[in-house]
Amino acid sequence: MTLSISGPMKLALALLPAAMAFATPAMAANSILGDWVTQDRDAIVRIAKCGKTVCGRIQKFLVTPPNGQGQKDVHNPDQKLRDRTVLGMAILTGFTPDGDLWRGKVYDPKSGKTYRSEVSLQSTNKLTMKGCILFICQGQNWIRAKQACPGEGTKQSKRCPLVSMLARSIP
Prior knowledge:
Helix content: 10-25%
Oligomer: single chain
Largest sheet: 8 strands, antiparallel, barrel
Strand content: 35-45%
Order of helices and strands: HEEEEEEEEH
Structural class: alpha+beta
């Protein structure tokens, strides 16, 4: 048995690749995926697909940690994990979409604690990341790395040129 496609269906299938080419940039612009500067402007976190979920890894330090670039996860409650390097470590794990939110877990390497977490996109270049215990949540606003320093070249923060330079260097 062979399937024959003709008429409007054939036209729709022919136009599908063009429609996808135009839709992809718009979808990417409204995505939590990408490189984000933390609220304290001390790191860039890359949010990407990790299997069937989404995770976020510390991609770059913008402020050198107390023990340098090779900072270990010294506050982890699991002694076996205290020797792992913080740079490259997943701090956002298991995120799945839930309406306008993404739900998962966030690990704070500064305290060694893991929290239930919610991430929501506020605009193309701003997201809110919340860590929650029971019903109490505390949030941070992160900005997309390439938008971190809109006034680059002015006398704003001394970190701004560094953030923009690092954002451009991340593939």
